[in-house]
Amino acid sequence: MLKWLDDHIEEVILTILMALTSIIVFLQVIMRFVFRNSLTWSEELARYLFIWLIFIGVSYGIKKEIHLQVDALDALFDRKGQLILDIIVNFFVLIFLVLMTTHGSDIVMRATRISGAIEVSMKVVYLAPVVGFALSIIRLIQNTIGKIRQIKSLDKVEEASK
What we know:
With 162 residues, the protein is mainly α. The chain has one domain. The protein is built from 4 helices and no strands. Helix 1 (2-33) packs antiparallel against helix 2 and helix 3 runs antiparallel to helix 4 (122-161). The longest helix has 40 residues, at 122-161. The N and C termini lie far apart (43 Å). The model has no long low-confidence stretch (mean pLDDT 94).
Protein backbone atom coordinates (compact mmCIF):
# COMPACT_ATOMS: atom_id res chain seq x y z
CA MET A 1 0.00 0.00 0.00
CA LEU A 2 2.82 2.42 0.88
CA LYS A 3 4.57 1.62 -2.40
CA TRP A 4 1.38 2.37 -4.32
CA LEU A 5 0.94 5.66 -2.45
CA ASP A 6 4.56 6.57 -3.14
CA ASP A 7 4.11 5.83 -6.83
CA HIS A 8 0.68 7.40 -7.37
CA ILE A 9 -0.35 9.87 -4.63
CA GLU A 10 0.28 13.01 -6.70
CA GLU A 11 -1.40 11.51 -9.77
CA VAL A 12 -4.54 10.66 -7.80
CA ILE A 13 -4.72 14.06 -6.11
CA LEU A 14 -4.06 15.89 -9.40
CA THR A 15 -6.71 13.86 -11.22
CA ILE A 16 -9.31 14.57 -8.54
CA LEU A 17 -8.46 18.29 -8.42
CA MET A 18 -8.51 18.61 -12.21
CA ALA A 19 -11.81 16.77 -12.48
CA LEU A 20 -13.45 18.86 -9.75
CA THR A 21 -12.15 22.11 -11.23
CA SER A 22 -13.38 21.14 -14.71
CA ILE A 23 -16.81 20.09 -13.43
CA ILE A 24 -17.25 23.27 -11.40
CA VAL A 25 -16.20 25.55 -14.28
CA PHE A 26 -18.41 23.62 -16.72
CA LEU A 27 -21.33 23.87 -14.32
CA GLN A 28 -20.78 27.61 -13.98
CA VAL A 29 -20.76 28.04 -17.77
CA ILE A 30 -24.00 26.07 -18.10
CA MET A 31 -25.62 28.06 -15.31
CA ARG A 32 -24.53 31.39 -16.75
CA PHE A 33 -25.33 30.85 -20.43
CA VAL A 34 -28.20 28.38 -20.35
CA PHE A 35 -30.06 29.37 -17.19
CA ARG A 36 -28.95 33.04 -17.13
CA ASN A 37 -27.99 32.67 -13.49
CA SER A 38 -24.58 32.18 -11.97
CA LEU A 39 -23.35 30.27 -8.97
CA THR A 40 -21.87 32.53 -6.33
CA TRP A 41 -19.35 30.00 -5.06
CA SER A 42 -18.07 28.29 -8.22
CA GLU A 43 -15.35 30.70 -9.34
CA GLU A 44 -13.82 30.98 -5.89
CA LEU A 45 -13.82 27.23 -5.32
CA ALA A 46 -12.38 26.57 -8.79
CA ARG A 47 -9.63 29.10 -8.09
CA TYR A 48 -8.71 27.46 -4.77
CA LEU A 49 -8.73 23.98 -6.30
CA PHE A 50 -6.49 25.26 -9.07
CA ILE A 51 -4.04 26.67 -6.51
CA TRP A 52 -3.85 23.24 -4.88
CA LEU A 53 -3.43 21.66 -8.33
CA ILE A 54 -0.43 23.88 -9.06
CA PHE A 55 1.44 23.13 -5.85
CA ILE A 56 0.80 19.38 -5.95
CA GLY A 57 1.94 19.56 -9.58
CA VAL A 58 5.30 20.93 -8.43
CA SER A 59 5.88 17.74 -6.47
CA TYR A 60 4.77 15.61 -9.42
CA GLY A 61 7.17 17.51 -11.70
CA ILE A 62 10.07 16.84 -9.35
CA LYS A 63 9.09 13.18 -9.02
CA LYS A 64 8.99 12.68 -12.80
CA GLU A 65 11.96 15.04 -13.40
CA ILE A 66 9.90 17.08 -15.85
CA HIS A 67 10.32 20.46 -14.19
CA LEU A 68 12.00 23.29 -16.06
CA GLN A 69 15.76 23.27 -15.96
CA VAL A 70 18.67 24.82 -17.75
CA ASP A 71 20.81 22.09 -19.26
CA ALA A 72 23.51 24.21 -20.89
CA LEU A 73 26.11 22.97 -18.39
CA ASP A 74 25.18 19.33 -18.94
CA ALA A 75 26.93 19.33 -22.32
CA LEU A 76 30.23 20.16 -20.60
CA PHE A 77 30.25 17.05 -18.42
CA ASP A 78 30.16 13.30 -18.82
CA ARG A 79 27.31 11.31 -17.24
CA LYS A 80 28.91 11.21 -13.79
CA GLY A 81 29.56 14.96 -13.88
CA GLN A 82 25.97 15.61 -14.90
CA LEU A 83 24.73 13.55 -11.97
CA ILE A 84 27.00 15.44 -9.56
CA LEU A 85 25.75 18.73 -10.98
CA ASP A 86 22.15 17.53 -10.55
CA ILE A 87 22.86 16.67 -6.90
CA ILE A 88 24.31 20.15 -6.29
CA VAL A 89 21.26 21.77 -7.91
CA ASN A 90 18.97 19.51 -5.84
CA PHE A 91 20.74 20.70 -2.69
CA PHE A 92 19.99 24.36 -3.46
CA VAL A 93 16.41 23.57 -4.48
CA LEU A 94 16.03 21.64 -1.22
CA ILE A 95 17.15 24.68 0.78
CA PHE A 96 14.59 26.80 -1.08
CA LEU A 97 11.81 24.27 -0.49
CA VAL A 98 12.59 23.97 3.22
CA LEU A 99 12.56 27.76 3.61
CA MET A 100 9.28 28.06 1.69
CA THR A 101 7.69 25.26 3.72
CA THR A 102 8.70 26.74 7.08
CA HIS A 103 7.69 30.28 6.15
CA GLY A 104 4.49 29.00 4.59
CA SER A 105 3.67 27.13 7.79
CA ASP A 106 4.05 30.39 9.73
CA ILE A 107 1.63 32.12 7.36
CA VAL A 108 -0.90 29.30 7.72
CA MET A 109 -0.71 29.48 11.50
CA ARG A 110 -1.32 33.26 11.48
CA ALA A 111 -4.13 33.24 8.92
CA THR A 112 -7.46 34.35 10.33
CA ARG A 113 -9.40 35.44 7.24
CA ILE A 114 -12.44 33.62 5.89
CA SER A 115 -13.05 33.45 2.14
CA GLY A 116 -15.96 35.40 0.72
CA ALA A 117 -18.24 33.09 -1.22
CA ILE A 118 -17.59 29.63 0.20
CA GLU A 119 -16.77 30.82 3.73
CA VAL A 120 -13.80 28.54 4.30
CA SER A 121 -10.76 29.51 6.34
CA MET A 122 -7.98 30.87 4.18
CA LYS A 123 -5.69 28.48 6.08
CA VAL A 124 -6.96 25.80 3.70
CA VAL A 125 -5.80 27.83 0.70
CA TYR A 126 -2.52 28.93 2.30
CA LEU A 127 -1.79 25.29 3.17
CA ALA A 128 -1.46 24.38 -0.53
CA PRO A 129 2.16 25.59 -0.95
CA VAL A 130 3.13 24.04 2.38
CA VAL A 131 1.78 20.62 1.41
CA GLY A 132 3.07 20.88 -2.16
CA PHE A 133 6.56 21.92 -1.09
CA ALA A 134 6.66 19.30 1.70
CA LEU A 135 5.83 16.61 -0.87
CA SER A 136 8.45 18.18 -3.15
CA ILE A 137 11.07 17.85 -0.41
CA ILE A 138 10.32 14.13 -0.16
CA ARG A 139 10.48 13.72 -3.95
CA LEU A 140 13.70 15.73 -4.19
CA ILE A 141 15.36 13.57 -1.53
CA GLN A 142 14.22 10.43 -3.37
CA ASN A 143 15.56 11.91 -6.61
CA THR A 144 18.92 12.73 -5.03
CA ILE A 145 19.26 9.25 -3.53
CA GLY A 146 18.58 7.80 -7.00
CA LYS A 147 21.31 9.99 -8.51
CA ILE A 148 23.79 8.94 -5.81
CA ARG A 149 22.99 5.29 -6.61
CA GLN A 150 23.57 5.99 -10.31
CA ILE A 151 26.99 7.47 -9.52
CA LYS A 152 27.88 4.40 -7.45
CA SER A 153 26.83 2.07 -10.27
CA LEU A 154 28.88 4.13 -12.76
CA ASP A 155 31.86 3.82 -10.41
CA LYS A 156 31.41 0.04 -10.29
CA VAL A 157 31.27 -0.13 -14.10
CA GLU A 158 34.46 1.96 -14.33
CA GLU A 159 36.24 -0.30 -11.82
CA ALA A 160 35.11 -3.44 -13.65
CA SER A 161 36.37 -2.10 -16.99
CA LYS A 162 39.88 -1.41 -15.61
